Amino acid sequence: MKMCPTCRTQYTDDTLRFCLQDGSLLIAPLPADTPTVAFDETPTVVRASDSQVTARATQPDVKAIPALKPKRRRSIIVSVFLACATLILLFAGAAIGYWIYQHNRPEVANNNSGNTSSKQSPGNVSGYFPSPTPRSTVSPTSKPPRPPETPAETDQESAKQAVSRSVYSWGSAAEAGDLDSYIGKYADTVDYYNRSSLSRSQVRNDKARAFSLYSSMRMTLGNLNVSLDETGTRGTAEFDKEWDFRGKKNSSGKVRSQLRLKLDGGRWLITSERDLRVYYTN
């Protein structure tokens, strides 16, 4: 015999599992609750008494909760496993992609082999100046790699070298006392120190007086810096000029000088000469 724990209805049919009144799970009654039934009794349902019905009305409707089926548990486990596997694959794919990007990233070529410094080492002419062609003393590790130069950059660098050669040639002619060659470095019109638009002949007269005073003229040009305008036909050269002149009277000193030049018929000619700063004079 079984009994409903909610409505206290008793059933003699052992095949029943749930109460026919409220659907509660049937339980076996305690020995004290089990009524004495004759062997010839046939009722399947034993009605509860009035007091039992009243108790049923005050008790909560407790229904059996079916156990979680094994198939549902396996489905949840499989879903969690698939989600974890997907995340692992995504992270692995991202790591492989980043490694391939870093491994195949193009490196910037080192093109310092043709690089020439615009600043030249100090020196002098005829044993005191270096060769008219400036030499570059760039260490392979002194500068970071730079991209290949464009044709425009190559032309600018070639023009700067040409200006540097003209400046050193100008200093060499002065030290050698070659007035004609020295004046040949100037343009037809020159801004000469604090005077503007002097003719080449006026500059020659002033230089001739200086040349006549000294039998020995030594000059050292250093820290040369050359810049060009956007057209590449005009340039500015700034440098330290140190001199030691000997003759009827002696003169020595050091200044920061500036020459402005223009490209004329394939030659760089001086259009302006002045001193920017005086270091010392004797």
Throw out a few tags for this protein:
alpha+beta; seven-stranded mixed β-sheet; single chain; 282 residues; three-stranded antiparallel β-sheet; Nuclear Transport Factor 2, Chain: A; rod-shaped; 2 domains
What does the secondary structure layout of this molecule look like, with pairings?
Elements: E1 2-3, E2 10-11, E3 45-46, H1 50-58, H2 70-104, E4 123-124, H3 151-176, H4 179-183, E5 186-192, E6 195-199, H5 200-213, E7 214-228, E8 234-247, E9 251-264, E10 267-281
Protein described:
The chain is built from five helices and ten strands. It is an alpha+beta fold and 282 residues long. The protein folds into two domains: 1-67, no CATH class; 115-135 and 152-281, Roll (Nuclear Transport Factor 2, Chain: A). The strands form two sheets. It has a seven-stranded mixed β-sheet with strand order 4-7-8-9-10-5-6. It has a three-stranded antiparallel β-sheet with strand order 1-2-3, with no helix packed on it. The chain is rod-shaped, with a radius of gyration of 54 Å. Residues 107-140 have low confidence and may be disordered.
Could you give a short description of this structure?
This protein has 282 residues and is of the alpha+beta class. It is built from 5 helices and 10 strands; from the N terminus they run βββααβααββαββββ.
Q: Please describe the biggest sheet, giving its number of strands, its sense, and whether it closes into a barrel.
A: 7 strands, mixed
Estimate the global geometry from the Cα principal axes.
Answer: rod-shaped
- Encode the helix/strand succession as letters: EEEHHEHHEEHEEEE
Radius of gyration over all CA atoms, rounded: 54 Å
Portion in beta strands: 25-35%
